[in-house]
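Interim report, section 4.2 (structural modelling).
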Amino acid sequence: MSILEVRDISKRFGGLQALSDVNISVAENTVHAIIGPNGAGKSTLLNCFVGKLIPDTGSVSFDGQSVLGRKPHQINQMGISRVFQTPEIFADLTVIENMMVPCFAHRDGPFRLHAFESVPKERHITEMAEAMLDDVSMLEKRDLHAGSLSRGDKRRLEMAMCLVQEPRLLLLDEPTAGMARADTNNTIQLLKDIRRTRNLTMVIIEHDMHVVFSLADRITVLAQGTPLVEDVPENIKGHPKVREAYLGE
Ligand code: ADP
Ligand code: MG
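Predicted structure of the assembly:
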């Protein structure tokens, strides 16, 4: 069953047609990668899923409900979370303080866990934050300033901040961009662990083919705002259209 249905999305920026008639169907509990050369429209597409951009035409529905016309925080409350291309964390706060922000938002939002209401609230929030940090192997860094973390750890913290909200759909925009190989491999492992232990669908935009082929169940290749091919990874490797899009052959 598909959890995200994208139908005939188009988006124009002035004279530039960034997306034209994009159709994508993402099956529940899968990892769906969107790849394509720089400027293909990948981030624009993701922005349409989270309410940061409104497409000119088409529809986007999540779990049967339209997301178009909703504000980013409302879409977030529907169960869609996004990891940005540049980590969006509070550099001057500590790791645990960063974690508290989505924890409070989550508790006070529509997903409030009534079962915990008898527990003193602050304590529960701290426990929730610490448990999540432990899940991403960041607990020992809880009191460090987020600004002082390595790129990989910043990404890890940002992912924890998303996951603590228990999203059903996690959108990742180039999660390994600018990372050294060791951090990239750690991120792949983290995403594999997340996938194994949680009921979660992921849409991942990624340049690094090693990451894409390690994680994706299906791949859509986007070029100049249009999907060229969609298939399982085995059939994408060496596909003539993909080589053409990347290498101009
Ligand atoms: P990708 O993420 O695949 O590299 P983007 O979605 O960022 O590509 O961009 C697709 C095209 O749209 C690019 O040519 C980019 O310059 C253009 N673009 C993206 N956002 C805007 C914007 N806010 N205003 C004008 N042009 C934009
Ligand atoms: Mg991009």
